[in-house]
Amino acid sequence: MKRYIATINQALTVMLVLMPGLALGFDSGSTGADGAFNPTVNTQLQLPPSGIFNFTSVNIPSGVTVTFQKNTTNTPVTILASSNVTIVGALSVSGGPSTNAGAAGDGNLGDDGIPGVGGPGGFDGGRGGLPNATGGTGLGPGGGSGGSSAQNTCFGSPATFGGGGGGFGATGGNSFCSVAGGGPSYGSSVLLPLIGGSGGGGGAGGTNFGGSGGGGGGGAILIAASGTVNVIGPILADGGGSGSSAGSGCGPTGGGGSGGGIRIVATTIAGDGNIFARGGGPGGSCISFGGAGADGRIRLESESFTRTAATNPPFTASAPGTVFVAGFPTLTISSVAGVAAPAAPTGNADITLPASTPNPVTVVFTTTGVPVGNTVRLTVTPASGGITSVISPALTGSTASATASVSVNLSSGPSVLQATTTFTIVAALGDVLAPFAQGERVEKITLVAMVGKPNKAILVTVSGKEFEVPAAVLSAVAGREG
């Protein structure tokens, strides 16, 4: 029997806040490999694995809307241009709404409660509860709480309640009667690291119908141009609203998704087109409704600023900062028994070894941004039989690029490989990550890659508290050197 090995590579990527003084000739770093982008019809671009487009120029004409198909790791959108970016049409990374429920729906009760989908780099809403059941919590670090199915008489008669709004630039709105709390604020006003909005919580189910799901969080986009970014048409990273709910015994509605993140860096920023990262609103209900999603964050950085219009929410501004910082900490299972792991593993038979492959096999790890001297723990979980855990020798090489390997026996049939490493980070980086750890400086990071579950990072604060963060939060800017 052949042996199938599923691997997932965990990339934790973090940007440091660097604010250089005024400089002429801002360089976006675009290689120009993707040429000029001049769509003539509505276009949905498939995000590459890195999330980065290297254009020479961008020109979106009137009447054309550009959206994006998310990649497998749900990175934000990064548009680099070696000259100018002109947006006369529309550019959107907004989150989607949840479906309507009950009598307000399409008659197919099976799709009641489906949450809104987050934009690229944003997070989905929580699912609406089935009849008499609690709604799901919105996804993301600021996900809104699910609506409660417990009967509450805060407005005079027993009722179940809607979900809380997603948080990001501020705390999300509470549901009616404040039964379900809005999600917390997170992230940085400078959008480093770049991240999108969080989903609203799903509404609880009613006595006859389910509640509607929460809206999806707005996505995140970085536009960096060596020349001018001229915004005439809208750039949108709005959160999705929740669907409505109606009918006798209907369920409450979910919370709105929070707005996403928009960062523009250029030599000149011009044009007074709309730049919106607004929170989504709750839908109407026969009983009670969810909370509104919080607004997101907008950051504008340029040497020359001729724009006069406001944004919603209000932007923060500065001279251009460094777009990308090299040396992001990453951990990769690079090969098993000499067979290279795929660049974008799926978690399903990513490596197939011949049945004749002898034990033990060598598993090789590569790291970037992880200090040498640290070790990597490999855990092998076969489809049947005991779990094996092996610790590697110390990483060798340099912090910029290091390797380690272990020898391990693999049983016949599929096995899941999980790699973890823990390392101490510098104080400046710990401060950048503090918003993800309730404001406390992070001292250590554990990178975790697990098949069958979302990848994650565990942040360990100076007081020893641990905060588990979805990989999508911290890998949102993965591969930015490419």
TrEMBL record:
Signal peptide span: 1-25
Keywords assigned: Signal
Annotated region described as Disordered, given as residue ranges: 116-151
Annotated protein name in UniProt: Uncharacterized protein
Biased composition (Gly residues): 116-147
Keyword Signal on entry: yes
